[in-house]
Amino acid sequence: MTTHPLDNPIWNALGSRLAHFGEGGAEAKRFVADVSPFAAARDSSPGAVASLGALVPEDGEVSLLQVAPPTPPPGVRVAMSALGLQMTARAMTKNEKSFPIEALGDDDAAEMLALATLTRPGPFRARTHALGRFVGTRDHGKLVAMAGERLQMDGFIEISAVCTHPDYRGRGYGAALMRTVGARILAEGATPFLHSYADNTTAIGLYKSLGFEPRCEVIHAVWSRT
Asked: 2 pLDDT band (50/70/90 cuts)?
């Protein structure tokens, strides 16, 4: 049976456009630790699941994000599991806000990490910003909101790390930045996608207003050593 590439997006990203950020072998891969905690197995075969379990650090965790994560092998436990929703967009609604938006890069890495640490939009580490192109907006030189790209494979690019400083929420920054990122992805002929926890109805409502539609449910699971 042929599966959709977004059913196991981490594996497909690490096997294509983001391979240079990965480590592992032919059956399981993970991102290097300073980029992301995400990992995935090729499939649910015993060998692939055992290989994925071997990638769990002794004093840390790996995160899985897919339609049907496998049962962990002996010596590994599910530390957390939550239902998520994967959404895709075929078009973006018109940007309603107008304010300066700038590209972010290596010179902004410390500010990006600080903003993500404060707002917790999802796993964000010292080099997460290197996974894709990020944009942001500033107030008197201070980075107050950002959005960018995370998982990438042929035809699909994920919008992620959308966050706004608590003092600047309610101004439409996040929506405008997402529209900017999503419109660029669409202009390049790819499909933007994203993930949300299934119970985050506020975020899901915002994403629908931007042009995103639910594609499928996914599971975000965290594995650690027993």
From this structure: low
